[in-house]
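Protein modeling request. Please complete all fields; requests missing the sequence field cannot be processed.
Requester role: graduate student
Desired output: 3D structure, token encoding
Chains: 1
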Amino acid sequence: MANESNNSIGVFIDGGYYAKINEGFGNGRKVNLKELLSFICRKIAEDNGIDRKHIYITECHYYRGRYRAADAKAKNLLFDEREFEDMLIENDVIFHYKHLRTNPKGGVIEKGVDTWFALDTYELTLFREFDFVVLISGDADHEMLARKLKALKTHVILLTWDPANTASTSRFLKEEVCSHIDMNRLISEEKTLLQALTL
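Delivered output (199 residues):
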């Protein structure tokens, strides 16, 4: 019998991983975030015998390093960043940014974003008491986060998507979570899913 009580989902997106998903498509194709979030609800409901009307995303958070305004302007990134933020806002996603730091050897580095992601995810799960937490990430550093979330009796779900087949998801993270939504496998089984979840 399906669970008739309300069930909440917290979704936490590693922005660097999400960017790799979009880059993996090529040809300007990108994730349709609205449809992906809706799919997450449907999939969790289906896999856990819950009526779709009794499950919903109560919070969605996105974490990423970002260039300072002057650097973004010099790289002609300001419009793209603003357009992306518009999409996050339209889907009620709360975004969290830290400035990228300059690497002494050249280039830039994301410093502290993964730690912030993990601390926020744990704290919010502790206080919001999500029934399900979905991690859109591939980082091995989040293995311990998954373990700690399970200690809160939260069902931890890893959603991975690797269009370019770069094997960018940690095996240890996949083994630690309660369940895994492998988009590559699902799309190979249902070809129309790719079109439904991308723009």
